[in-house]
Amino acid sequence: MRTKRAVLLPLVLLTLLLAVFPLVGETFYIQLLTKVMIMAIFAMSLDLLVGYTGLVSLGHAAFYGLAGYVLARVAPQYEPASLWTTLPLAMAACAAFALLTGLLVLRTSGVYFIMVTLAFAQMLFFVFHDTPIGGGSDGIYIYAKPLVKIGETTLLDLEDRSVFFWFVLGLMAVVYLFLRRVLDSNFGRALVGIKTNEHRLQALGFPTFRYKLASYMLSGTLAGLAGYLAAAQFGFVNPEILGWHTSGGVLMMVILGGMGSVHGAALGAFAFILLQEVLSNQSWFGAVAKHWQLAMGLFIIGVALLLPRGLMGLMGVAGYFTGKAKSVDE
Amino acid sequence: MFIPRAGTRGQAPLLIPHNRDSEETRPMDTAFFFIQLLNGLQYGLLLFLVACGLTLIFGIMGIINLAHGSFYMIGAYIAWSLASMTGNLALAILLGIPLTVLLGMLLEWLLFRYLYARDHLYQVLMTYGLILVFEELRSLVWGDDVHGVAVPALLAGSIPLTDNLSYPIYRLAISVICLVLAGGLYWLIQKTRLGMMIRAGSTNREMVQALGINIKLLYTLIFALGVALAAFAGMIAAPVSSVYPNMGAQVLIICFVVVVIGGIGSVWGALLASVLIGLTDTFGKVLLPEYAGVSTYLLMALVLLWRPEGLFKRI
Amino acid sequence: MSDYNRRDFLKSSAALAAFSGASVAGALLPVSLAQAQGVAAKIRVGLMLPYTGTYTQLGVAIENGFRLALAERGGKFAGRELEFFKVDDESDPPKAAENANKLVQRDKAEVIIGTVHSGVAMGIAKVVRESGTLWINPNAGADDVTGALCAPNIFRTSFSNWQTTHALGKVMKAKGHKTAVFITWKYAAGEQMMVGFKEGFEKEGGKLVKELYLPFPQVEFQALLTEIANIKPDAVVAFFAGGGAAKFLKDYQAAGLKGKIPLYGSGFLTDGVLDAVGDAAEGVETTLHYADGLNTKKDNAFRLAYVKAYKLQPDVYAVQGYDAGQLLAAGLEAVKGDMNNKAGLIKAMESAKIDSPRGQWTLSKSHNPVQDMYLRRVVGKENKVVNVAWKALADPARGCKA
């Protein structure tokens, strides 16, 4: 892939810029950027499904929330939990849930798939909302961030905001590189093949159902990583994190970034959350900021109608008008 | 014994005494079973009004419309504001229906028609954006308060059923109105020329066009019909459910379940599935309150296992 | 597959970097300016209240009450002016910690006043337990705030959920009710009020035969009302609030239960809804720490001043906000306005005797009001006081180790 080399430099530069931010930035913005990077992991995980495998899920928050709830329920009351046990457990729970629901939802396709993924996420919402398993509509607080220790030595003190920032930044980079690697493999190429023409791949003897299931599980597990980090950062989970606005939001990020490009999804997350922060900033927009969702909604409608390739596509459009860059089409 | 929540940091619900005494209370006798049946039917039929628009719009135009729940909400708010202006809910509904039909036609003409040929993804995107817009407009126009709507005086009474329970007449009226509408839809789809076009349009768009039918107009009409049905459901539900922000979201997702169970595009499947869900939810609330929310989705999972395409095929 | 050329990508990332940089720098500015100007004299007060959403009016009433207490003292507490920083918490628990952080870190608030929603309050508790910021909670009744989460810097001027229903047991026993059903929303506030009632009722020998729950904030009561009719208890106890309460009262009547099975409740069941429910609430008895018709000098004066200032009738929320101001004033006066003398400030607040419109109250060891609970009966459009159901009721403060 030609893309790889072309994007490497700017990506490394951006990462370095991010890495020095905790040294200069205000606490509040360190936390905001941490949140953005967590959402970037979440968006990249969904992009694997939507952008590469061609499965539009409107229930991706299920994994995100499930992992958070696993951390909240497994962690002891006021003491920190160990990252070594809780993180794998949370991701394993997501993989298991993905396997279970995947066997059902992947029997459907197209618009069915959208509705059924939404419905399953909603089912999980009610599991945590109503049953004794969850903490009711009020949610559960997590009072301490997980410990990263070997023996008695603390490797990383996640309570330190900067350390947590770098930890998330590192994981974001790892997830990015991992996904690139996966997509460059035969498995990744098969997924793209499924997206463009599943029947042809079936005819070629590919067990497409298993490929889709693997993609679904991988995507869900990575979403779990994001959910775990988010729960650790905010120290709070409640059923709303499994709600469909979370699913809808992350889908917006993916589409905004332009589907089918891993860094696009991550940039989509940055753009989406920063847009949210800007539109809802009361010191800039005053009383209007209260209704920032109106602007957001109009913006989304505009993207849907006019920019089928997301913001990355916008660059192409701009290039077309200035006559400098070539079209970004395949 | 229940210990305050944070003392156990959220584990509290495990300690909530699951009422041991509930076994001692009397089992549901026939009269109460019958009343709960009525409750379930009424809820199911109301769901049907919303779900059938959703399934029609999808079945015929291939559009997945997340904003469909918003129409339910808009209907309820229109009913509330017109009823408080005119002092008469029936009049408010009569005035409101043309408004919602107009809204439906306008939306179809302005936005939805550009999505017919597009991937479902963009339909999801745009209709999600529409939800945000509708919610904010609702907030700007009507505010964020919860409002009650008075039951019309004519239907305000209750019918005594047992020594201490009466059944509100208005709830019976809702069921009757929904049944009448369902019958009307049957007549429309099976017996009229428009229905014939709808049936044909859902199977073969090009064929219908080739026959010289104005498919654009047909789509506009169907979309408006779906919007009006959902809004009407919100209007007649307003007195029993109250009017509140975001009231559409819950209904929308349940309607997705209805459509998935009933089969996308199938009106009769939607009717059956709505009633099924209404009953599951009502009896679930009484018998297993903590699992009532989950139960409807489990029902969906079971149906999917058995029939991934839902119970019924088109129309 | 996307295949951008390098220039496209550079452009897009540059645009993004500029975008984020601008927003960060822009947002930093107002804070540092405000800091430079304000620090000298004014006390930085963070108001974290719902200014949008269902609880808007409650948030406004609390702020009004607080400002009235300030105005009565000439706009100053112990000679120091106050500078307000407002955050709309939207009654949204997931955003609570972030919003509280905005006040503590971005605005450098020295004291936080808020909020209405208990879930949001838990988020504030989490933040101020870390930062040590003084927090006065003028409403949210979550037991844990002055229970397991209690801390020297956490105060409450309202009530604990447990308090609002505990006295009902005594009242109902006196009326000869032996069995009861409790119906509420399935969330912390509902569950805690259920426990408060259950303990009080069972101590008196009564029996809670069934707890009925509805997911918050649903208002479709029909199936559960049918269940109540099936069980036939001696009495029903309910907690709902706002629109949900109005709907419940009307449905209770429509189902034919009113007049057959007496209805009791936490005071919030009938507060602020009487205009909306017609005669459906007539005669319903509830307990709360405030009532109409108290007819004390302090209450009359407060009501008059509030109506004059805001052209609105005060309610229990306004009283709680007013008392939050009174409590802060009492503390600051003892330390002569020195916010840095935190130990002295806290000590003075702990031992303050608040002369409230609701009657005099003090603070328990866990910083929750020890106050009289009134039995009220709905008469017309008022929650008329019947008597004091429980003198100086204190919350058990379970799990409070401080």
What do you see in this structure?
The complex is a heterotrimer of chains A (330), B (315) and C (402). Chain A contains 13 helices and 4 strands. Chain A has a two-stranded antiparallel ribbon with strand order 1-4. Chain A has a two-stranded antiparallel ribbon with strand order 2-3. Chain A is globular, with a radius of gyration of 20 Å. With 315 residues, chain B is mostly helical. Chain B has a domain of 199 residues. In chain B, 70% of the residues lie in helices and 2% in strands. In chain B, strand 1 and strand 2 form a beta hairpin. The longest helix of chain B is centred in the first third of the chain and has 32 residues. Chain B starts with 11 loop residues before the first helix and ends in a 9-residue tail after the last helix. The N terminus of chain B is likely disordered. Chain C folds into 2 domains: 194 residues, Response regulator (Rossmann fold, 3-Layer(aba) Sandwich), CATH 3.40.50.2300; 147 residues, Response regulator (Rossmann fold, 3-Layer(aba) Sandwich). Chain C has 13 helices and 14 strands. In chain C, strands 6, 7, 8, 9, 10, 11, 12, 13 and 14 form a 9-stranded mixed beta sheet that branches. In chain C, strands 2-1-3-4-5 form a 5-stranded parallel beta sheet, with helices on both faces. The longest helix of chain C has 33 residues. Chains in contact: A-B, A-C, B-C. At the A-B interface, helix 5, strand 1, helix 9 and helix 12 of A face helix 1, helix 5, helix 10 and helix 12 of B.
Walk me through the topology:
The complex is a heterotrimer of chains A (330), B (315) and C (402).
Chain A (H helix, E strand, L loop, with lengths): L2 H22 L2 H26 L8 H14 L8 H23 L4 H21 L9 E2 L6 E3 L2 E4 L4 H24 L1 H18 L4 H27 L1 E2 L6 H14 L4 H18 L2 H4 L6 H15 L3 H13 L8
Helix pairs in contact in A: 1-6, 2-6, 2-8, 2-9, 2-10, 3-4, 3-5, 3-8, 4-8, 7-8, 9-10
Chain B lengths: L11 H4 L14 H32 L6 H19 L2 H22 L9 H23 L15 E3 L5 E3 H23 L1 H11 L1 H6 L4 H27 L5 H16 L4 H21 L4 H15 L9
Antiparallel strand pairs in B: 1-2
Chain C lengths: L5 H33 L4 E7 L6 H17 L9 E7 L7 H11 L4 E3 L4 H14 L2 E4 L16 E3 L4 H6 L1 H7 L4 E8 L1 H16 L3 E9 L6 H10 L3 E5 L2 H13 L8 E4 L7 H4 L7 E4 L8 H14 L5 H19 L7 H9 L3 E3 L2 E5 L5 E11 L2 E12 L9
Parallel strand pairs in C: 1-2, 1-3, 3-4, 4-5, 6-7, 6-8, 8-9, 9-10
Antiparallel strand pairs in C: 10-13, 11-12, 12-13, 13-14
Helix pairs in contact in C: 2-12, 3-4, 6-7, 12-13
